[in-house]
């Protein structure tokens, strides 16, 4: 019998790093969830109990906090690039470092009629979360930007019909339904010379506008339309991937009460949900 160690990696997950920029009276906040992993030759740590090559996950966590100050957080991508570079430098046995960062957005509290909002009081913005994943090896780097939990709904402009039917198919065809999802999207950049913050806002706006303005014959078609629109407008993006739970809204039968329901009252079913996933990519990638 031959047994060997397979793929392995290790790191610190979900350090909640909050960086306040307080160089002036008008503070800024970056509220992050940071995870890192090192991969490489860590065989001895597993099979011989020898930890001499292992940079502790505690040190990885400390670096995440120190770098929030030493490098700063101009964007989560820029921060993750720097953190990954440092972890790789600090760990000779590592061949790669993966850094994942989520950012929770805060808005300034508006006070009176001052449109600028308060200098140092914030209210957490609900909704979607910006994400990045930076994968560094010794001679390459790959940046994926993204968002998760972008909850969107169309109250019409969506159908689902003409689908394959078998003995177990009961779903009625519909030419007018609610389409809703909590979108996760990740887009891979072909380089790193990118304005991370402005492109993030542009991609998010493109996703929303395409969702709103495209008639949907299925969530699959909507993902394709959103992906195409992003690749058409952002030459630096090589591919975009989606994970989209179909948040079913089922028409409630009000006829027992003698009440008509022409697409007006729905039950939002949380489970089960269809899960539609797709990647839209350039031909030459
Ligand atoms: O947009 C949809 N795609 C499907 O694949 C599917 N399947 C289903 O039951 N409803 C839907 N809706």
Automatic annotation (TrEMBL):
It catalyses: urate + O2 + H2O = 5-hydroxyisourate + H2O2. One of its GO terms (molecular function) is urate oxidase activity. It comes from the Bacteria. Keywords: Oxidoreductase, Purine metabolism. Its EC number is 1.7.3.3. Belongs to the uricase family. Transmembrane segments: none annotated. The active site is at 12 (charge relay system), 57 (charge relay system), 248 (charge relay system). This is Uricase. Pathway: Purine metabolism; urate degradation; (S)-allantoin from urate: step 1/3. O2 binds at residues 57, 246. It comes from Ornithinimicrobium ciconiae.
């Amino acid at each position: 019998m031959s047994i060997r160690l397979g793929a392995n990696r290790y790191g610190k997950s979900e350090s909640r790093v909050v960086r306040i920029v307080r160089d002036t009276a008008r503070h800024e906040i970056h509220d992050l969830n940071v995870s890192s992993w090192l991969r490489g030759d860590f065989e001895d740590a597993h099979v011989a109990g020898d930890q001499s090559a292992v940079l502790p996950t505690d040190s990885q966590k400390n670096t995440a906090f120190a770098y929030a100050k030493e490098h700063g957080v101009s964007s989560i991508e820029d921060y993750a690039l720097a953190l990954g570079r440092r972890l790789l430098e600090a760990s000779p046995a590592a061949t790669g470092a993966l850094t994942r960062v989520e950012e929770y957005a805060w808005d300034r509290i508006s006070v009176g009629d001052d449109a600028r909002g308060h200098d140092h009081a914030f209210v957490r913005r609900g909704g979607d979360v910006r994400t990045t994943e930076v994968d560094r090896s010794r001679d390459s780097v790959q940046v994926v930007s993204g968002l998760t939990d972008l909850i969107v709904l169309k109250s019409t402009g969506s159908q689902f019909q003409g689908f394959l039917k078998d003995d177990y198919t009961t779903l009625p065809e519909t030419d007018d339904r609610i389409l809703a999802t909590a979108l996760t999207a990740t887009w891979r950049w072909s380089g790193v010379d990118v304005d991370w913050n402005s492109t993030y806002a542009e991609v998010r706006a493109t996703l929303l506008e395409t969702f709103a303005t495209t008639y949907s014959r299925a969530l699959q078609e909507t993902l394709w339309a959103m992906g195409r629109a992003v690749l058409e407008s952002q030459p630096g993006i090589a591919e975009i991937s989606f994970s989209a739970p179909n948040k079913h809204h089922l028409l409630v039968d009000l006829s027992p009460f003698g009440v008509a329901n022409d697409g007006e009252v729905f039950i939002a079913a949380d489970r089960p949900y269809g899960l539609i996933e797709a990647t839209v990519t350039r031909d030459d990638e």
